[in-house]
Amino acid sequence: MDAPTKTRPTLDDIRAAAERIKGSVIRTPMLKSRTLSEIADAEVWLKFENLQFTAAYKERGALNKLLQLTEEERSRGVVAASAGNHAQAVAYHGRRLGIPVTIVMPVSTPMIKVTQTEGHGANVVLHGERFDDAYDHARELEAERGFIFVHPFDDVQVMAGAGTVALEMLEDAPDLDMLVIPIGGGGLISGVSTAAKALKPGIQVVGVEAELYPSMKNVVDGGNGEIGGDTLAEGIAVKEPGQLTRAIIGDLVDRIDLVSENELEHAVSMLVNIEKTVVEGAGAAGLAAILAEPERFRGRKIGTTLCGGNIDSHLLANVLVRELVRCGRIARLRIAAQDRPGALAAITAKFYECGVNIIETNHQRVFSRRPAKDTVIEVECEARDSRAIDTLVDHLEEAGFHVDRAELD
Predict the structure, then answer these.
(1) Which fold has domain 78-146?
(2) What Gene Ontology terms describe what this protein does at the molecular function level (predicted)?
């Protein structure tokens, strides 16, 4: 059967894709995490797809697709709609193969992603406010200019390329009995589940979506969860999952878990602090699910893909600091005191006694509900552990100061 009329890849397609892309994408490490395994009370293996040249697994499917174009199709050029990893994958391998590439991105796409994609040689067209607008315009360009459209997930050749991840995972860790894979449009998990179930029929495949974007879970499980919002996992923030992928997932994926924003942030931080690797929110979704509900994974031999590492450095910094707040090492205290000489010195003395470092202070006299003779001193502080700050609060209150502690929502 010709590829354009197929509705799903086979194990043979995935094996052929592995041979086709061999040497042009990185065979990324598959490593057991001793520390995460201890935390989860399971055997946790990580597939470091964030180490691809464009920092995401998307290269596998894009390259497999491009390599199967005819010379005539290559000369016409390709078009894709993406604001992220797919754009860079198509642009990078298109330039390598001498194929003209046009990428349509929403006008709201961060400039760093635009410049990175242009840096790979693509012609970037900014169109529309949302991805759907960019997608529609890309299809219009396909029809008007004769481009070949490279779909980010709903394409058999793209899915087959993504499925090569599973071949490598099971080759490096053949005893795995569960794979935990992020879901956006569904291309990665469709390819992975196809290969894994063919090689090990008893293996479980668990999909993971951001709680704000349960689009595939709604389709497969018949749910009606609301879709939308600002998620750290923008790489899997898909409102309308694939038509081809949903059928494969319905047949081969054992269940779909949802993870909250706090759980995604925690997983990103754990990977930085424990594995010393930078992973974007979507790429950390699998680990987020394992850490969020460890009882569902306890005792299993689990493989999960760190499918991308393209996270804005400022956003990553915020995530890491927020994690320090959650674990109690950074705090913001509002300390009410009488507005008289020596009050601030008495407060800072308590910080010194407890070994807590002051990062920033704000002395507020006017915008406060306290009496006019009182003041509020806001102090952002850090300590070696949460107990030091708890002890500080106790000492301040014992000294007659009223202390409120700011919390993350």
Answers:
(1) Rossmann fold (3.40.50)
(2) threonine deaminase activity
